[in-house]
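Annotated sample (chain length 232).
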Amino acid sequence: MSAYAGISGDVLLSTSPSTALGSPEAATDTGNHINYFAATHQAWDETQTLTVQCSPDGSTGWATVSDYEFYWPVGEIVFNTARVVGTNNHVHISAGHYFALTSLSGAHAWKSSAKAATKDVTPFQASGNFAQYAATIKSLTFSVDCFSQDARILNEMITGDGATNISGGIVVCQLYWDKAGGKRWQFYAIPTGVDTTVASNDIDKQSIKMTADGPVYEVLSDTFSTTTVKRA
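Output written by the structure step:
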């Protein structure tokens, strides 16, 4: 794997509220007629209704379907069975809410920590007297250091009636290590803290902390496919 200069990185976050889709958005077939990606918007709001439709020719006979799984943070539709050419292989999203993502102001450093939890399941008479473990859950936390006082994260932490974030407290996060190449981690996250430092002899600083909520995706290009978007 290539080494990348840190200056190549970036941090993009969604801003609440999500935006309702104004007209149907095409979904691009990756070639296997099973995996399709939203053609324009990458990140979608799982708290809002999403409608997927199929057509035999891309212009008529659109029919709502439900035999799929939707990967919300990356806009991927995964059908249970392959679509049939000339029957239902043209796909679009007819209703849904998407997130717009922008760079976090003044961000200059990010650090993530991924963990895999295990449980001790060592039985009596275990082979060689060695402990045995079962994998249980995975988690990812991260922090971002900024040269700014950006209120957007604090606003996202406020949920409930009259709040900015009406999507269950989640935001979509992109942690880039190579912005030009589109290489990043992309996932839902929940803000957990904001630390601010202001000193008369220094630059104002802000550090935010967040926890991934659900699957984390490794994205290796801005052109989405089954080889460039993978669940970690």
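Annotation: The CA atoms of residues 112 and 127 lie 36 Å apart.
Annotation: The helical segments are 152-156.
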